[in-house]
Every structure is written in structure tokens, then in C-alpha cells.
Predict the structure.
Amino acid sequence: MKQTLLIITFILFAAKLFAQVPARGGNARPPLPVREVSGIVKDSTDEAIIGATVKLKTATDSTVTTTNADGIFVFKNIKSATFVLSITSIGFKPLVRRMLNNDAVARLVLDPIILGAQSNQLAAVVVNAPSITYKTDTVEYRASDYKVRPNATVDELLKKMEGMEVGSDGSVTHQGQQITKAKLNGKDYAGGDLARAIQSLGADVVEKIQVVDDYGDQAARTGIKDGDPQKVLNITTRADRSVGNTARINAGGGNNSRYESRVALERRDGNKVLNINGNFRNTVNGVASSGIAGGAGGAGGGNNGAPGATGSGGTTTSGSPSITYRDQWTPKIEVNMNYRYNYTNVNSVNNSYGQSYYQSRLPNGTAQSDTLFFVRNSNQLNNNKQHNFSFEFEYSPDSSNFLRVTPTININSSSASSNSSRADSGLRFQNNNGSNISSNTTPNFGGIIFYQHIFKKPRRNASIQLSYNHTNQQQDNEQNTLIGYKNNLGLVTGNLNTHRLITRDNLTRNFRTSVTYVEPLSLISQFEFNAQVNYRGYDNNALTDSIAPSGLRLPMGEGLNNVYNYAFTESRLAFNYRLNQTKYNLSFGVTAVPTSLTGDNVSRGNIRTTRNNFFVIPIARFQYQWSRQHRASINYSGSPVEPSFTQIQPIIDTSNRQNPIVGNPNLKVSFRHNVNAQYNNYLSNSKFNISVNLYGSTVRNQIATNNVRILDPADPNKKAYINQTNYVNLSGSYSAGGNYNLAKQLADRKYNLSLNGSVTFNHSLAMVDNLPTTTNAWRLNQRFGPRINPNESIEVNPFISYDYTKTFLTVGSISTTTLQRTALAIDGRFFLMKERSLTIGYEASKNFIGGNIQQSVSSNPLVINGYIEKDFLARRNLTFRIQVFDILKQNNFTNQVINDNGYTNTLSNALSRYFMFSVRTNLQKWSGSPSRNGRPMRRRGDGSFY
């Protein structure tokens, strides 16, 4: 009994002591009155779903929100940790999920929510997502909504899409902006060659077309953007067209030694791609060489839809074989290799004329204007060869680390020869006849190393990128000119022969280091840091020899020799805050940009000059997204620009005796400020797309020219002047402009109306004879091109464009110049016989050229092209074609260049009428969708598999 009482007493005493000692880890926290709930909604390809409706319902109340541009949703002041979450979005299966969470946690971050795709079928009508989707930096088109003929290529598909303008040369403009590179499933394809990609890939393999604002590989991984983006076309393939073999072969020959051939062989297995591609041709410059351009709405690039409107006359012989290899060697290693060889031989004949205006002040202070009139004829032969090799190696040891190494090698060589004659009148009277022979070799090698580490905390990451580029350009230029000086009566009073050999050796070394760090501040905001050092070093050596009539080379001494080295170093420290809300995202911060420009005049005793600058520029980006089809954005960027070697060299360059160039080693670094704004709205129910782009820029310390007349010491009449170009810094230049695209699809896309236009204004500063001058230039361009496909047998594409340029000059007796071009065009196809296997295609364009500087243009050309082709075999994949180009032989070009004190018009004529017979075949065999361990592989947003 005593033992029992003792045990009870001990237990009670211990319990009392235990009650007085706090429990380890603290007491269980009481439920919080309110909490924040957040999460992210994605699709099966791991892409964020924008604008999804998210409803949260508790036992007492409910609330609704939508996901932002990154697919994130946030609920605040939620009273219960137990709730039901309902998520809906057009094109996806609804999801309802009951959530039981810790009611003592202030912030509940849910696991990613994946929605499956869905098509709703109602009485044989399938309701899909809209054809066009606008994401943060991407415009996405669903290819299945745009119908093309069997065996069509991607360029024909692009011509059907709103905002796209496709030239017959393979150039692509999207909403007024040029696309520069092509990718396939997120990786460079055929070395990024856009024309090769869209003209060799079949349209039937495409799932989506994406136009991406590409800020570089580092920005794609980290999200930190710097500078201005370039437009990149990314083609994503259908899953059932991602395993198989294809062969596209085209060969043709014509009169006047014309020929054209193209071969594209490819093996594709998910991320594994082996492609062999080649183009070989001898064609006329500026005349479509691969068939009809494919619709006025599809004309683009350089000619704004008017065939024959621009270009250079002559013929081009070219070849461009390439190989692309992409593979995933192991689950952690992926490679992408591209090699391309390109050669072009261009033979051109050009005639040009123009005027240059000069202004000086007489001793009494009155202004005196003089005009130089000139006419120039030339023929040129240019040969160019290029080798381009790149190898991209990616290593992902785990989900937290990523390494990319990209070495590149480029070897360029060229040779050129030309003969020219020029006659001057007005300010001076003389003839100038000459020949020029040059050769150039430019080996280039470099590489980029990029490493990123992702921390355990979501969105926290750091990266470093190192890049180096080494270019050594070696050039020989032999000039032989004969100048005949005339008096006012037109009689030759003296001659001057100049025969020189100029040897240049220019070495350029570029090195860049960039470090980034991202620290998330909340689920919708983050801090971004970016530090950069950009070094560009230039070593330049120029030697000039005189060539005697015997052929002996005689050094011309220090006066014409130059050894000058300079370097430009730009550093950047950027601090940025980014906020991603449901409807909008914004970035604002500041960038400090110190720069240093140093030069060493080696040939003058190692004289050094140094220019240091410090800039502080804002970071400002804002995007508002009403929905996945409706957005607006505005962006600011700024960048310094260093002088070129020609502008900064400290001696007189007399390579062109009539236009000597005097460099200025005291030039400052110029700085350009840019503002860009975009508005996009696709009304899916009406199939109506609106796109507007606006831009403005201004330059501080712009490097401008000062053209000074000096008496020609070789003129026996002492009346002729030569033009000496000097360089100065001027501030106040600016430009502004905008472009728009309106596209409307009617009757299930049988009728497509497309209206494009642009307006630009440039205000530039310069000096003439040491007096300031201004040039104000307006350009208005409007293009209307409907595409009409009333049935499967008719395709008609009329087109009209108007291009107007007006320039106001502050020097010369003529203060304004105008050039206007109106183009009327039509092209189309008729499909005849059983299964429409016979095609008759045509293209016609008429140009009307005018303006107050129009002169000696033979006529307003009417250019007509046409072809007949017949498909054979069950799959219609064997085609024979007969083509004729420029039936009326009226194709010509008129190019105008406006400079600081005048203009030059170039007229080019070519033997443009020729015939071509060709045969092509399209072979393909598919083996299903990519899989791993018997399961279909998932896809990323760019189309790559994992």
C-alpha cells in the first residue's frame, strides 16, 4: 500500500513539474483568422494558362479570380484552410479539387495544377481555342486552322496567317517587323536560315507557328531582358509528324543557262533531327526564281509586295548546302550542330544619277548654294564564300543546374572587280573612269558558355554567361582611276591617273561577361540584378602603295599609312523590380552604364586618347493583357554606340581620291534612347486581328558627317572641288514611326482581307562646309492585299500598294525631293482536272513611278510571270512545271538613297525574261509519336520533347 501511494505521489509531482516546462517546439499554433492562397495553372506541355477562371469556395463564402500572364492566381483574406477549388478555361477540361490544408499557415502555396485539353463537340461542330494566342513575348498561330494544298511548304502556310508578309525570296515580315531567324521545336534549324526552313519544311508537319521576341539564350532561361529583341520564327511539329523520314527534291533548268535545284532530306525522331539541305541556282536578280510569290498579301521583305520594285540588276549564281544534327545523347546531354557553306557569284550592271547640294557664305554674309550633278555607270562581278559552323552542347546534371557551351567558327572570303565611269557637272566639270579589284578574307571564331543554378526557393536563380569572339579581316584593294578635268566649255584641260594598292588588316576582339540573379519577393514579384562587362578591341593596320606603269609597287610613306588601335569598354549594373499580376506585368529599375573609349596612334608615336562617359538610364517595361488574344505593351531601352575605325582613325584616308575621309580621334560615344509600344487584339469570334506598333528614338552625341569642299590641287583650272568627309558629334537627331496590320477572315477563311501600312519620320543632323544642316524625311507606305479562295479550284490574290517618300533638305536650291511608287498586282492559281491535279498560275504587276526627281526611267514596267504544273501519282507528290518569267521583258528597278546633302537614284536592268522547266517530288513516311518506355513523351511550349 505504501508503495502504491509512493508511486501515485511521484506521478503527480512529475506531472506538475512537466506542466511548468514549455513543450519542445512550442504549443500547437491556433488557427489563423485569414490566409493567402496561391498557385499556378499549366497545360500538359508545362505552359502557363493565361486568363483561366479560378473559383475558391469555403463553407461560408466564395471568391473568383483569373490567372495572370504567368498562369498564377492569388486569393487573399481567405477565412478557412479547407475549401473547394474550381478552375475553367476555354479549350481545357474543367477541374474541381477539394483542398485540406494547415489552418495555421499564413501563406498556402498549392502544387501546380495541370489542365487537360478539350474540344467540345456540338452537332458536328468542334469548338476549339482561338487561332491566335498572344503571350508575354510570343504570338502563336494554330496551324490546323489555315488550310493549304497537299504537299505545300511552310511559306504557303505563313501567307494564310494574319499579320504575315512573305516574299518570294523567303523573307518574312510579321506585323511590320522583319523576322531574322528560324527554329524548329525550339532549336536553330539549318543554321537559323529562315528562307531555307520555310521553303523546305512541309506545311502538313506543323502544329503551331510561333513568332518570338528573342532577347537571347540567357534571357530565355533567367527571364531578365536586356536590350532590344529580334524576331524569331519557331515552328513546332505535330506529335504524329515528329517521327519519320522526308525527302523534298526539286530540279529545274531553263534558257540562258538558268537553273535551279533544291534538296531537303530529313530524319526526325522527337528531339533527334538529321537534316541535309541544299540550294543551287543561276537566276536573275529581283525576279521570283521559285514560282509565284504566293499572294499580294504575302509579298514582303524588300519589295513591299511590288515585284520588281527594288533590288539590283544582273544575275546570281549561288549554292548553299547545309547539315543540321540534333540529338539527346543521354537524358542529361543534348546537342545541336549546324554547318552551312554558301557561295554567291553576282554579275550586275547598274546606272545611277543624282545631285549633291552645298552651301557656303560669302564675305558679305549671304548664303551661296551650289549643286553637283552626276551620272554613273558601272558593272560589277562579286564572288563570296562562307563557311558557318556552330555546335551547341547542353548538360543538365539535375533539376537545379544547367550548362550550355556553344563554339562557333565562320570563315568568309570574297573577291570583287568593277569598272565604272562617272560624269560630273554643275559645281565641277570632270569625267572619272576607273577599275577596282579587291579581295577579302575574314576568319572568325568564338564561343559562349552559359551556366545557371536554380535554388530550392521557387524562382530564385543565378547565372553567368561568358562569350568571346575573334575576327581578323585582311583586305587588298587595287584602284586605278583616270580623272579628266574640263573647263566651262566642256573641253578636257588635264588628266590625273591614280593607281594604288591599299592593304588593310583589321583585328577585332569582343569579350562579354554577364551575371544575373533573381530573388522572388512574393509569389507575384521579384528583384532582378544584372551585371555586364562588354569589351571590344580593334587593332587596325592600313598600308598604301603606289603602282608604277611598270607594275612596281612603291610605298607612299607615313602620310597614307596608318596603325591605330582602340578599345571600347561598356559596363552595366542593372537593378530591376518586376511585378506579375493577373492582368498586367511591369518592370522598373535603373541601369548604370560607365563607358571608356581609348585609342593608341601607333604610327604617330603611341599617342593615346581617352574618353570616359557615365550614363544612368531607366528600366521600364509594361504589359497589360486583357486575355490571351488581347494585349498592349510599352518598352524603353538605351545603348551606347562607339565610333567605327573609319570614323575615329587619326589620318586622312585617300582610298577614294574624290572623297577623302578624315577621322576624328576625339569623337565621343553616342547614346541611343528607344521607346517601343505594341497593341494586339484578335477577335476570335469575328476572325479579325488588329496589330499596331509605335516607336520613337533619339540620339545624343550622334556621330555625323561634315562634308567640306576643298579645291582639287590636280585641276589645272583651279575650279574643281573634291568632297572631304569629316566626323563630328551632334545631338538632336530623332525618329518616330509606326505600322499597323488589319486582317479579317470571312466565310471560313475563304476570303482574307489584309491592310498593312507604315509611317516614318526621320530628323537627322549633319554639316556641309562646316555649316549645320538638317534632313527631314517622311515615308508613307500602304498595302492592301485580299486573298480570295471561293472554292477549292480558284485562288485569286489582288494587291495594291502606295509608297511615298518626301525629304526636306536645308541646303541646295531644291529644298524638297519626292519619290512615289504605286504598284498594282495580281496573282493566283486555277486548279483543273480530276482531284485538281493541273494548276495554272499567274502573276502580274504594274509599277507607276513618279516624283520631282524622276529622270530617265524608261517606262512604268508591267511584269508578268506564269506557270503550268501537273501532279502525278496517287499522293500527287510528283510534279512537273513549266514557268516563264517577265513575259513582256519590262522588269527593272529604281532604288533611291537619301544622304545628308543630296540623293542618288540607281536604275538596274536585267535579262529578266527566261523560261524554266522543273520537276519536284515530296516523299515522306511517318512512324507515330515520340515515346519513352512505351509512354508518349511530354512537350515544352517551344515544341521540344522531354
The chain has five helices and 55 strands.
